[in-house]
Amino acid sequence: MKNTTKEPLWTAEFTGYGISSSVFYIVQYIMVSALPIVITLSYGGSAFDAGMAMTCFQIGCILCRPFAGELIDSLNKKKMLLFSTGLFFLITAAFNFSPSVEFLFIYRFFQGMLFAIGTTVVATVAVLVLPNTRKGEGIGYFAMFVNIAMVIGPFFGLLILDTLGDQALFIACAMIGLIGFYAANRKPLPDTLAIAKPRGNKAWNLARFIESRAFPWALMGLFMSFTYSGILVFVPIMMTTMGIGTLASYFFVIFAVTIVITRPFIGRIYDYYGASYLIYPGYIIFILAMALLSMAESAVGIFIAAPILGLGYGAIAPAFQTSSVQVIPSERAGAATATYFLFLDLGVGLGSVLLSMLVSAFNFNIMYWINTLIALIGLLLYHFVVRSKAKVNIKKL
User: Fold this and answer.
1) Under the phi-then-psi rule, with left for phi > 0, alpha for psi from -120 to 50, and beta for the rest, what region is 188?
2) Mapping DSSP to helix (H, G, I), strand (E, B) and coil, where does residue 238 land?
3) pLDDT above 70 covers what percent of the chain?
4) Over the stretch 110-166, which tens digit does the pLDDT of each residue have?
5) Per UniProt, which keywords does this protein have (predicted)?
6) What does the alpha-carbon distance between residue 254 and residue 257 come to, in Å, rounded to a whole number?
7) pLDDT digits (tens, 9 = 90+) for 319-368
8) Largest Cα–Cα distance in the chain?
9) 368-380 pLDDT, tens per residue?
10) What average pLDDT does range 4-27 have in this prediction?
């Protein structure tokens, strides 16, 4: 075994990037949970308007994601951090000045663009400042910041909206964005990592923006995020139809807390033994938990599935992300990260649409059974295709 405890992990830079990443997702989760209510109650909008706000965000995000990696690899990363986090703060603050719902659509579109660029650059530089011997552990902790945001965002967003109103909600989002700007830039990235390496004049083609060597892991990320969308989007709706919608937030608390508790062990397993020692058991656990969710008929069944889902998802998600960048040269780290995140965006988008069709045609139980089969296909894809394609090595115990 390797000694992975000598090089420091929690440096000022890494901690700042983790906090900044969390801020991006806290603001996004606040918007996802609270903005539809603001649109319908404060602006007199329809359910279509509420959905359109999310659509505008996703369009902006998907349009910018492929170009984000090339920008990061070509430009000074220190300046990219400054501008992406600064502009994200400004567009978030702009929500305080929205005379109509149409302005909210415009703000959400640009917020999606800056979210795509900002999360990509923060994730890229976080990987670059990690010691090579502790990348799996470090990326696991970095992903933990997002898991924490998943709990904090909806909880505090709805709390502020309910107690103080929509204006206070937008002010709070702006203040959170300012914290992210400070956290990302308070400790400047060293010039050795910030300055882009000369790469000559490259042709403007798809290969410049998409890192093909990250494809195997990006494809696994797509399968993972597709099935994950069934949890993120439909568990609250299913619990509402059961008459227990007020308990939905506790499901995600249990889910996220399980990920946070297991994160230190997950990262070390990756660094010591390799990706497959996480992916095989993690995927099997995730599949079993999805099957449990498909059979759930009460809050008890759903809450039993929550920590098991968290354990499985918490193992495979950081393993895929770490593997997608670990074999890529540092000068293409941005493109690899953008490629992986693009496939995640596509997985969530496709899953939200296709799984909703299954719910409409059948019911939640059937949808989760089919989602279980899709997760099983993902595991088989890893075993028979991706593992050999990506040259995954299972290290000896």
Assistant:
1) beta
2) helix
3) 91
4) 999 999 999 989 988 888 888 877 877 888 788 888 878 877 887 788 788 888 988
5) Membrane, Transmembrane, Transmembrane helix
6) 5
7) 898 888 777 777 777 778 888 888 988 888 788 778 888 988 899 999 99
8) 62
9) 999 999 999 999 9
10) 86
How far apart (Å, rounded) are the C-alpha atoms in residues 248 and 17?
Answer: 30
User: Total domain count for the chain?
Assistant: 2
Statement to judge: residues 229 and 363 lie in one domain: yes
Domain range for 222 is: 212-390
Distance CA 169, CA 157 (A): 7
DSSP letter (8 states) at residue 211 = -
Domain shared by 86 and 12, yes or no: yes
Give this prediction's pTM. 0.75
Cα dihedral 153, 155, 158, 161 sign: negative
Positive/negative CA dihedral, 277, 280, 286, 289? negative
Tokens encoding 343: 């496939």
CA–CA distance, 27 with 170 (Å, rounded to integer): 10
Residue 23 covered by a domain: yes
**CB proximity list for 346: less than 8 A, separation 6 or greater:** 62, 222, 225
